[in-house]
Structures are given as structure tokens and as C-alpha cells.
Amino acid sequence: METVINVRALEKKLNDPSMGRWSIEEILALYELPFSDLIYKAQTIHRENFDPNAVQVSTLLSIKTGGCSEDCGYCPQAARYHTDVQNEPMMQLDEVLEAARAAKANGASRFCMGAAWRSPKDKDLEPVLKMIAEVKSMGLETCATLGMLKDGQAEKLKEAGLDFYNHNLDTSPEFYGDVITTRTYQDRLETLERVRKMDINVCCGGIVGMGESRMERCGLIAQLANMERPPESVPINLLTQVEGTPLHGTEELDPLEFIRTIAVARITIPGSFVRLSAGRQSMSESIQALCFIAGANSIFYGDKLLTTGNPEAEADKRLFSKLGIHPI
Ligand code: SAM
Ligand code: DTB
Ligand code: SF4
Question: Which atom of ligand 3 is nearest to the CA of 76?
Fold first, then answer.
């Protein structure tokens, strides 16, 4: 498809420090640049905004696993799909703190607690608030991903000392209904609004490789880049295909298209951390290195994400050392 934006117009936009709103056509024009030109632009913008050799490391822990009422087509924790995930009740405080201590000893600076909920009940939130306060007092940044938030819940999270709330848009508004039907795009935007209002940092991104088109990937990036205040942290997940979920068997995304997505996110959301998130286990060191060159500057660290695997911490330490990357 021929893009309507010419290269000169794109150059002009990239040279304007405010850059302004991104149209889908402009984002598509970035995707369509020759690979080398795209990476060069992304790396240049990365260097203007960040230490290019520093990567933020966060460790995830599933504090309540499986049995979720939602129908997210990628998710092994949805009760309605038959996957190998065993349902587990809320973890005890001391187990969570032990995991946080281990994450800190291993070099993580942020600890992210995830729960398989559509939305937490107020009584579910109480033990999580205690976890947040205790993890924070250990000198770690805190992050939680608990589903949709209702009135008053972001306030309580803020009071407990929550630094980041993760809530992903997952994909473009156009493709969204093909993946999830039990909550709307607008529901997600409203939760993000509640988090913003309480001045909690927003961690919001999506998943690629779900069978969406390039245009739909542009649609997700446009949503993120055009927010009044873009998310401080932007996780880009590559779908981890889990047997039993509807998206199992989807055609694999070309790794070069994944790297392009990282580069386009870096250019359009220049001041935010772009996290190379789920999917690293299936990527070679060289592909990951290209993601860092394209502007990824955060990872999940530790041998498990929520229920699926992630590279061993030792392998990541070796990779960082080979690339001269220091963790922050
Ligand atoms: N239940 C909460 C929610 O949906 O907001 C929090 C946990 S949920 C597992 C957090 C995010 O993980 C999802 O929004 C999705 O972007 C990502 N995710 C879940 N399963 C995934 C998979 N198989 N591959 C890639 N990303 C996935
Ligand atoms: C995000 O964007 N990716 C993480 C985190 N935020 C919560 C989760 C990835 C989950 C991958 C599938 C699993 O391990 O269950
Ligand atoms: Fe539930 Fe979250 Fe999984 Fe969706 S992504 S099924 S809301 S745990």
C-alpha cells in the first residue's frame, strides 16, 4: 500500500521538538521506512532522551493466579479456556515479600504484582495494599496490575505507596473486539484515567502477533502516543501462544516486524520507557539486541512472567554483559 505521507513531511515532523499528534498515516510511514533508516531514527531519538546503555529491570509475580472471568483470547488465566494453569488463591504476604527480596537481590528495581481479576473487590484489595506498602519499604518501586479499577480504588493504591499501575490497551480499537468481548476499550481508558488522576505512573502498552494487521499495530501506537500524557512505561508484548487459548496457532509475527514496532514506539513516545516484554524466551540474543538498538530500555527479569516462562536471570546477565548494558 502506498502511504500518503512523503518522507519530507515526516522529516519535518521528526524535527519539531513537540511532534504533536500522530496520525495513523504518519505512523504507517515510519513502519514503511527502510529498516536501516527506521532504526537510525529510533536510536537517535533514544540517545536524545535516555542513556542508550541503561535498561530498567522489573520483576513480575502473579499474586493470584487463574480462574479469571474475562475472555481475553490470549490469556491462559481465563477460566473459560482449558490450559495447564492451576488456579491459586491470593498469596500470603510473607511469600510475596520473599519473592520481592529475591528480585531485589537479583538486581530488579521494580516489583510488579499481578492478579487474574476482571476488577478487584474492595475486600480483595486490602491484602494487596499491605503488600504494596511492605514492598515499597524494602526500597523497590512498586507496580500492580489488578484489572479495572472502581471509584476510590486508585486512591487507596496511591495511599499504600503504589508507583506504577499496569493496564494495557492490548491492541487498536478496531481489532480489540476480535480479542476481548467482556470489557470495552472505553472501560480500559476509564481505568487509565483513574490512575492518572491519582498521579500514579501509568504502565500501558499492548500485544502484537495476535493476527492484527500492520495498520492495527499503528492504531495501538496512535492511541498510546496521542494520550494527553503518554504512559511513562510502554510494554510491548509479543503474544506468547498458550495451548487452550483461542489465539493458540496464530501465524507467528516476523521478528523484523516486532523490532519495527519497538522502533516506532520509541520514535512516537520518545520520553517513555519502552519495555521489551512477553515473548523474549522465543527470541535469539541477536533479535533482543536489535530491540535494544531500536529503543527498548526495559525488560521483565526473572525466569517467569505471570504463568509463562521468561529467560533465566543468569542468561539475561550474560546478555547485558555481552552488550555492555547496565541495569537500572
Ligand atoms: N487481569 C489484569 C488485566 O487484564 O488487566 C492483570 C493481568 S493481565 C495478565 C496483564 C496483561 O498481560 C494483559 O493485559 C496482556 O496485555 C498481557 N498478557 C496476558 N497474556 C499474555 C500472553 N499470552 N502473551 C502476551 N501478553 C499477555
Ligand atoms: C505486561 O504488559 N506484560 C506482563 C505484565 N504487563 C503484567 C504480563 C505478560 C503475561 C504473559 C503471559 C503469562 O505469563 O501469563
Ligand atoms: Fe483475566 Fe487479565 Fe487474563 Fe484478561 S488478561 S483473562 S482480565 S487475567
Answer: 3
**For residues 255 and 280, is the Cβ–Cβ distance under 8 A?**
no
Establish whether residue 59 lines the binding site of ligand 2, counting it when its CB lies within 6 angstroms of any ligand atom: no
CA 151 to centroid of ligand 1, rounded, Å: 23
Per-residue pLDDT of the chain (328 residues; tens, 9 = 90+): 445 677 777 888 888 767 789 999 999 999 999 999 999 999 999 999 999 999 999 999 999 999 999 999 999 999 999 999 999 999 999 999 999 999 999 999 999 999 999 999 999 999 999 999 999 999 999 999 999 999 999 999 999 999 999 999 999 999 999 999 999 999 999 999 999 999 999 999 999 999 999 999 999 999 999 999 999 999 999 999 999 999 999 999 999 999 999 999 999 999 999 999 999 999 999 999 999 999 999 999 999 999 999 999 999 999 999 999 999 9
Query: Known catalytic residues?
Result: 68, 72, 75, 112, 143, 203, 275
Number of other residues whose CB lies within 10 A of the CB of residue 119: 16
Whole-number Cα distances in Å, 157 to 27, 101, 125, 162, 230: 35, 21, 9, 6, 20
**What is the model's pTM?**
0.97
